[in-house]
Design brief:
The chain is an alpha/beta fold. The chain has 12 helices and 15 strands. The N and C termini lie far apart (about 55 Å).
Length: about 375
């Protein structure tokens, strides 16, 4: 619960935070009379601002806070002095994550109260009911949430309506809130081109939006068993597969990694970077201590049919950042009783590979995404 005082009365409400942030201990009611400099100072000091002014003005205040944060952070290769420049890409990565976390904490200090029916009682506030229902389920009781998270709900709602075009699939995937969107298509190109070891059965480990399961069935797999721990991901995959007319050939299971049994093809696209996520959506990108990667490799041999292949789809970004070495990956493969039958590589084409102002540009520019075809040794 979150607590605050307003008009001489103490109030409490349910606190929502998808990032798992605790409710702020200090809450000040704020309106259009509060200027951006004051708001920034209070937010940096840990005081949350429960917005009671015009909704559009609140949104502009959030943008003003973001601009003040950016002015505090040097950008580009030439902006940092020799004394402040990171000594390595590993340090640059950790500093970047630290700055991202600090930015998220400050921006999360601007709060919005939402009624039990998902209405926001502020002047010029839009209708959030559809976006909130998709993310949180049916309306229940009033709550307080950061304006930034509320905007993320709306963004996810629009992505869900519009969808993401997947050229390798020849169709559109509609990601749900909290489920990673398959915006990077190069790994799907690898999946579409690699020679299939069999056409009767495949396992898709960590299905997410269901895009890999859909692509495998499009390639002719008679049946795919797709697993995920996240109920949101399973609901998202189910909806996408039904929309594509593929649901009858895909069995969805809520599991941590593998289903029971063996298959001639087992595919996994684990998070690529061994680091701590700061929100649920980041679990699709960051894998603490390479837990999912190591779990997939360790259990793969016991779930491969004789002569079968395990397809590991992973980027070498972690290697360029100094977070995991190529030798470490090869050692894990060997320790699991596996050998590399082949590897297919492709370079990513997303915008950050060309953004010299990105603090991690050197690593992104060198990045290669690979499909490792693994067999029992």
């Amino acid at each position: 619960m979150i607590r605050w005082s307003e008009d001489g009365t103490d109030h409490t409400a349910l606190w929502r935070s998808e990032a798992g942030l605790p409710p702020p201990k200090r809450v000040l009611v704020a309106d259009d009379t509060l200027n951006a400099d004051q708001a920034y100072r209070l937010a940096c000091e840990g005081t949350a601002l429960l917005w009671r002014g015009d909704f559009h003005n609140g949104r502009q205040l959030l943008q003003a806070l973001a601009r003040r944060i950016e002015r505090k952070q040097p950008k580009g290769k030439g902006k940092a002095s020799k004394d402040t420049a990171p000594a390595s890409l590993t340090q640059a990565f950790h500093l970047h994550r630290q700055a991202q976390g600090q930015r998220a904490r400050i921006l999360a200090m601007l709060l919005i109260a939402v009624d039990a029916d998902y209405r926001v009682n502020l002047r010029r506030a839009p209708d959030f009911s559809a976006a909130c229902t998709e993310a949180y389920g049916p309306a229940g009781e009033p709550f307080v949430v950061s304006l930034r998270e509320l905007q993320a709900l709306v963004g996810a709602h629009e992505w869900r309506k519009k969808g993401v075009n997947i050229p390798a699939l020849g169709a559109t995937i509609h990601p749900h809130y909290g489920v990673f969107s398959p915006l990077r298509g190069e790994y799907l190109e690898l999946l579409a081109q690699a020679p299939l070891p069999a056409s009767d059965l495949a396992f898709d480990i960590g299905t997410g939006s269901g895009v890999i399961a859909a692509l495998l069935t499009k390639r002719g797999l008679a049946k795919v068993v797709a697993t995920d721990l996240d109920p949101r991901a399973l609901a998202c995959a189910r909806e996408n597969l039904e929309r594509l007319g593929l649901a009858a050939r895909v069995e969805l299971q809520q599991r941590d990694l593998f289903p029971e049994g063996r298959a001639p093809l087992v595919v996994c696209n684990p998070p690529w970077v061994p680091a701590k996520p700061s929100s649920p959506i980041e679990y699709a990108v960051f894998d603490p201590d390479s837990r999912m990667l190591r779990g997939f490799l360790a259990g793969l041999k016991d779930h491969l049919a004789p002569g079968g292949e395990g397809w590991l789809i992973i980027s070498d970004l972690a290697e360029h950042l100094g977070l995991r070495s190529r030798q470490q990956l090869l050692d894990w493969i060997a320790a699991a009783g596996l050998e590399v039958a082949a590897r297919h590589d492709i370079r990513p084409s997303h915008g950050k590979t060309r953004d010299a102002d990105d603090p991690l540009h050197a690593a992104r520019a060198a990045e290669v995404t690979s499909l490792w075809r693994l067999r029992a040794a």
